[in-house]
TrEMBL record:
<dbReference type="GO" id="GO:0003917">
    <property type="term" value="F:DNA topoisomerase type I (single strand cut, ATP-independent) activity"/>
</dbReference>
<feature type="transmembrane region" description="Helical">
    <location>
        <begin position="21"/>
        <end position="42"/>
    </location>
</feature>
<dbReference type="InterPro" id="IPR025834">
    <property type="entry name" value="TopoI_C_dom"/>
</dbReference>
<dbReference type="InterPro" id="IPR048045">
    <property type="entry name" value="Topoisomer_I_DNA-bd"/>
</dbReference>
<dbReference type="InterPro" id="IPR013499">
    <property type="entry name" value="TopoI_euk"/>
</dbReference>
<dbReference type="InterPro" id="IPR011010">
    <property type="entry name" value="DNA_brk_join_enz"/>
</dbReference>
<comment type="similarity">
    <text>Belongs to the type IB topoisomerase family.</text>
</comment>
<keyword id="KW-0472">Membrane</keyword>
<dbReference type="GO" id="GO:0005694">
    <property type="term" value="C:chromosome"/>
</dbReference>
<keyword id="KW-0799">Topoisomerase</keyword>
<dbReference type="InterPro" id="IPR008336">
    <property type="entry name" value="TopoI_DNA-bd_euk"/>
</dbReference>
<dbReference type="GO" id="GO:0048511">
    <property type="term" value="P:rhythmic process"/>
</dbReference>
<dbReference type="GO" id="GO:0003677">
    <property type="term" value="F:DNA binding"/>
</dbReference>
<dbReference type="InterPro" id="IPR014711">
    <property type="entry name" value="TopoI_cat_a-hlx-sub_euk"/>
</dbReference>
<feature type="coiled-coil region">
    <location>
        <begin position="146"/>
        <end position="173"/>
    </location>
</feature>
<protein>
    <recommendedName>
        <fullName>DNA topoisomerase I</fullName>
        <ecNumber>5.6.2.1</ecNumber>
    </recommendedName>
</protein>
<dbReference type="InterPro" id="IPR013500">
    <property type="entry name" value="TopoI_cat_euk"/>
</dbReference>
DNA sequence: CTGCCGACTTGTCGATAGGGAG
DNA sequence: CTCCCTATCGACAAGTCGGCAG
């Protein structure tokens, strides 16, 4: 009954945006029996007026511990002479000295930004004395921190246990909130401590001081009828508001980019889970009309209007290559990275012929997080001709799509399908690829580890599509070697076990007694077990090798409809724990509950 | 239309907990 | 039980996208 109910509700969710309201527990009386229905959270009411909750209560954020001045024996030297710094100036030097081992502290921009911000924290006296970063010697401080972290590692079990308990206490007190009728885990209830901003890639602001956040910087969001969080003694919140049109519990403005940071709920929460579900439903709606959209953009390649041609070619890239939309960015504020709409002439090369292929486009640019996207793909002639046209009379630093931006593109997409935006294509193509690859790669007769290898390969296909690369782990070669050693050992074990089996068989032939018969059985089992272990190790080695430069996590967490994986597990009898770890199972609880083995994305 | 803001998702990476081998 | 190693998790950065004012 419950399944039926769940399916019905699923149906309603997918087909009908106007949903009736339900409570969390139902009582039905059938033939004198009282039946109780527990309704899962993701099947509960959703608000239709844009509000996200009715009741919200929490304890506010946890602040970074205050600065502890260095012991007097640890000295900072300027121009070879020891110098005692004021606490604010000293704190900033500790950030720098902790980073001394990193290459980026040698970079000009980093040093320049750091020095500029450091000087702002100095007293006027310090300011007039300290004028050259190169004359600063932080090595004693650096040594001190290294010793400290060594000491932390050497702490006794009891001390470590104490710290753990304290963390647990903090988690219990501040890590949860009540939203509507549920206790929910908060994602990041700790305020980021001050430090030096690093940024990714070639960031113009690297080295700047990320300042300490105080209660006076924090806006609290909770419901009027809740017990409001108390600021630390002697302080005040910047503001307490009661805005139930948003999901965050607290926010503050960060000083590097001037952007707002939020405290929000954990992915396991109702509010995040529902949104996630919705995202995949939008992608599934795209599945239904993607053919039509593809026909249309191919048609648009022939348009009389330049802007339409550009739009159509960009959309083709977004669809075929799973590129990101590519918003414009303020120059000099962030690293120079691009997405589809912000591609520049210098980022592509056209080859009318390359090897045995025609109309090849070579992409080479830095995308999100300054991860390089490099790809050579043959495109259709019409796309190629259009690209040549777009490139005419342009400089390398000019925009490839000068008549297009993400806002124009998304407005167009919105007209093609309700809720359609550029990023939906990434979700759609990722999920459909997983489903199709799983179909292709899974052999029903394979062992469980072999099936999991197939799953990872399907996952890998998606990660490659989305360009989720990673730097090979520093210990990669070594751990590969270790694994190989293990495999070799297993192989030796196996041949030894086989020899023993053979001997046992011979013995049985000779003596024909019960005992020798038993020995044969035991030895046979041993061989079998070792064979299995060997196979497992070999599969593991293959998997790891293929995964060297590819990160599976991001696509698994953000792009793959979890119901595909759940259905696959059910279909092939794979325990879900083999695919999703604990955190992931919590995040995807909605999918685990609702997907059957015949689920189709 | 443009720039900016606000909210929310997506992304990488390093620290570390805890599981398994010896 | 200890040590080693890796999977996991949190930190925090960097995207997307919609809305609004001028």
């Amino acid at each position: 009954e419950h399944d039926k109910k769940a399916k019905k509700r699923k149906h309603e969710y997918e087909e009908d945006e106007e949903d009736e309201l339900l409570g969390s527990v139902f009582f039905f009386s059938v033939m004198g029996c009282v039946l109780l229905f527990v309704v899962f959270r993701w099947e509960e009411e959703r608000y239709t007026d844009g509000s996200k909750w009715r009741f919200l209560e929490h304890k506010g954020p946890v602040f970074a511990p205050p600065y502890e001045p260095l012991p007097d024996k640890v000295k900072f030297y300027y121009d070879g002479k020891p110098m005692k710094l004021s606490a604010p100036a000293e704190e900033v030097t500790t950030f720098f000295s902790k980073m001394l081992d990193h290459e980026y502290t040698t970079k000009d921009i980093f040093r320049k930004n750091f020095f500029k911000d450091w000087r702002k924290e100095m007293t006027s006296e310090e300011k007039s004395k300290i004028t050259d970063l190169n004359k600063c010697n932080f090595s004693e401080m650096s040594e001190y921190f290294k010793t400290q972290s060594e000491a932390r590692k050497q702490m006794s079990k009891e001390e470590k246990q104490k710290i753990k308990e304290e963390n647990e206490r903090l988690l219990q007190e501040y890590g949860f909130c009540i939203m509507d009728n549920h206790k929910e885990r908060i994602g990041n209830f700790r305020i980021e401590p001050p430090g030096l901003f690093r940024g990714r890639g070639d960031h113009p602001k690297m080295g700047m001081l990320k300042r300490r956040i105080r209660p006076e910087d924090i806006i609290i969001n909770c419901s009027k009828d809740s017990k409001q969080p108390k600021p630390p003694p002697g302080t005040k919140w910047k503001e307490v508001r009661h805005d139930n049109k948003v999901t965050w519990l607290a926010s503050w403005t960060e000083n590097i980019q001037g952007s707002i940071k939020y405290i929000m709920l954990n992915p396991s929460s109702r509010i995040k889970g529902e949104k996630d579900w919705q995202k995949y439903e939008t992608a599934r709606r795209l599945k239904k009309c993607v053919d039509r959209i593809r026909t249309q953009y191919r048609d648009d390649w022939k348009s009389k209007e330049m802007r339409i041609r550009q739009r159509a070619v960009a959309l083709y890239f977004i669809d075929k290559l799973a590129l990101r939309a590519g918003n414009e960015k303020e120059e000099g504020e962030t690293a120079d990275t691009v997405g589809c709409c912000s591609l520049r002439v210098e980022h592509i090369k056209l080859y009318p012929k390359m090897d045995d292929q025609e109309y090849v486009v070579e992409f080479d640019f830095l995308g999100k997080d300054s991860i390089r996207y490099y790809n050579k793909i043959p495109v259709e002639k019409r796309v190629f001709k259009n690209l040549q046209l777009f490139l005419e009379n342009k400089q390398p630093e000019d925009d490839l799509f000068d008549r297009l931006n993400t806002s124009i593109l998304n407005k167009h997409l919105q007209e093609l399908m309700d809720g359609l935006t550029a990023k939906v294509f990434r979700t759609y193509n990722a999920s459909i690829t997983l489903q199709q690859q799983l179909k292709e790669l899974t052999c029903p007769d394979d062992s469980v580890p072999a099936k999991i290898l197939s799953y990872n390969r399907a996952n890998r296909a998606v990660a490659i599509l989305c360009n989720h690369q990673r730097a090979p782990p520093k210990t990669f070669e070594k751990s590969m070697q270790n694994l190989q050693t293990k495999i070799d050992e297993k192989q030796n074990q196996l041949s030894a076990a086989r020899k023993q089996l053979k001997a046992a068989k011979a013995d049985r032939k000779a003596s024909r007694d019960e005992k020798s018969k038993k020995t044969v059985e035991v030895k046979r089992k041993a061989v079998q077990r070792i064979e299995e272990q060997l196979m497992k190790l070999q599969v593991q080695a293959t998997d790891r090798e293929e995964n060297k430069q590819i990160a599976l996590g991001t696509s698994k967490l953000n792009y793959l409809d979890p119901r595909i994986s759940v259905a696959w597990c059910k279909k092939f009898g794979i325990p879900i724990e083999k695919i999703y770890n604990k955190t992931q199972r919590e995040k995807f609880a909605w999918a685990i509950d609702m997907a059957e083995k015949d689920y189709e994305f």
